[in-house]
Structures are given as structure tokens and as C-alpha cells.
Amino acid sequence: EGAVLATEDGEIIYQPAPEGNVIDTVGAGDAVVAGFLWGYIESGSYKEALKCSVAAGSASAFSYGFASADDIRALRRFL
Fold first, then answer.
1. CA angle in degrees (0–180, nearest 5) for 66-15-31
2. Distance of alpha carbon 16 from its chain centroid, rounded?
3. I need a surface site. Which of 18, 44, 52, 67 has the fewest CB within 10 A?
4. Per-residue pLDDT in tens (0 to 9) along the chain, 79 residues
5. What does the pLDDT read at residue 21?
6. The pLDDT value given to residue 38
7. How far apart are CA 52 and CA 7, in angstroms?
């Protein structure tokens, strides 16, 4: 359904997940963590990091095996 982030400043950020056909959730949680780190390193923004996180986890769940970077970027554009 999405993800929630509570920051050290007490801000609560919610990012809904995009709609899609879930194929395999194995590794999706790891992709969420990796996407968050990628988004935060690139932007320095928690909000942007959460969007990248949800895009990576969703792309992984919508794929067989690993999601490609292009799949993740494509989903990110819709968040």
C-alpha cells in the first residue's frame, strides 16, 4: 500500500505505492532499503528518498528476479 517514514524532526511522510501486478515479493524489502539510500544520497531529501524507496520496492515486486534501473526510474516518474 505504500510506506511511512518518521524523521528525527517528528515529520511523518507517507508515500503510496503505485498500482501494478505483483509477481514476486522476494527481495522487495531489500530493494526498499537500497532505493531509500540511493534516493537520499542523490537528493539529500527524505521525501525524495521515500519516493525512490517505494519505486524500487514496487518495481522489484512487479518483476521476476531483480528489477532493472530503468523499471525503477519509470515507476519513480509516477510518484
1. 20
2. 10
3. 44
4. 899 999 999 999 999 999 999 999 999 999 999 999 999 999 999 999 999 999 999 999 999 989 999 999 999 999 9
5. 97
6. 97
7. 16
CA separation for the pair 44, 38 (Å, rounded): 10
| Other residues' Cβ atoms within 10 Å of the Cβ of residue 66 | 12
φ, ψ (nearest 5 deg) of residue 50: -65, -40
Catalytic residues: 30
- Sequence-ordered strand ranges (E) for the chain: 2-6, 12-16
Length of the chain: 79
pTM (two decimals): 0.94
Q: Which residue has the cell 503510496?
A: 16
State the amino acid at position 34 in one-letter form. A
